[in-house]
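Exam revision sheet. Question 4 asks you to relate a sequence to its structure. Input first:
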Amino acid sequence: MAESKPKAESKPKAESKPKKGGSKPDLASILGLVVGIGGILGGMLLEKGELRHLYQVSAAIIVLGGTFGAVMVTTPMNVLVRAVKHFMLVFFDTSQSPAATIEEIIEYATQARKQGIVSLEQAAGNVADPFLKKALNLAVDGIEMSQIRSIMELDLSLVEHDGEAEAKVYEAAGGYAPTIGIIGAVIGLIHVMQNLADIEAVGKGIAGAFVATIYGLVTANLLYLPAGSKLRTRMQVTVQTRELMLEGVLSIVEGLNPKLIRTKLDAYLAEQHSGGKKAAAAKGGAAAGQPISAEG
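Answer key, structure tokens:
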């Protein structure tokens, strides 16, 4: 009788690819910059001005170089490098959709409820987001809920600290640029005053001297300050999404039903959307001297 062949070991099912938020253009930032510059240039053209009058390489070198130098003196090099690397986040949104995050967490919760939380070890290795990956690994390792919360909240505080530091780099640039522009205008006027014999050249020189001031004001108010605000907003969205991830993982560790977890996270998501409106209403009520109800 022929020997029976050993049964092939059952292979684990292939895990689904990690979900990524992707990168999509931020139309608000792109269109805002286009509309802002277009409005300034359009107004100039309506006043019969010529665009060539705004083209001065020397003024651009003074403003951009002086501003960057001042920021370098103000900012630690590691923070400056991070801020430069993250500049494209002003024009591109790489954050993961909160709704997609909830669906991903529900999948892990369903698997943990059926097969045990240890079964998430392989899935945790394929998670794209490093924060969620770390939280799931801690859960799989059997770390207590209080310790998981403490460790991950420390990570969140570091994200907030780093994001705030990067936003302040551009806010500092927005503060320096107009002043450097004035310095450029003064340098131009000094050059003009040395050649007072030619009255026509003096007029052109004075007009050209103020181009540096325009460069400083435009870059500060259309680029640097808005970039700082947008990076701070990106950081806040990241923190909110990761808080949602943390609540989801802790709910899995607690052994809650996936339907209950979904209800919990959906309510948390709704709170995120309404938080900005409630804060604005509270601020407006306080400014008007009206009492603010406890219910918001």
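Marking note for examiners. Confidence is low (pLDDT under 50) at residues 1-20, 276-296.
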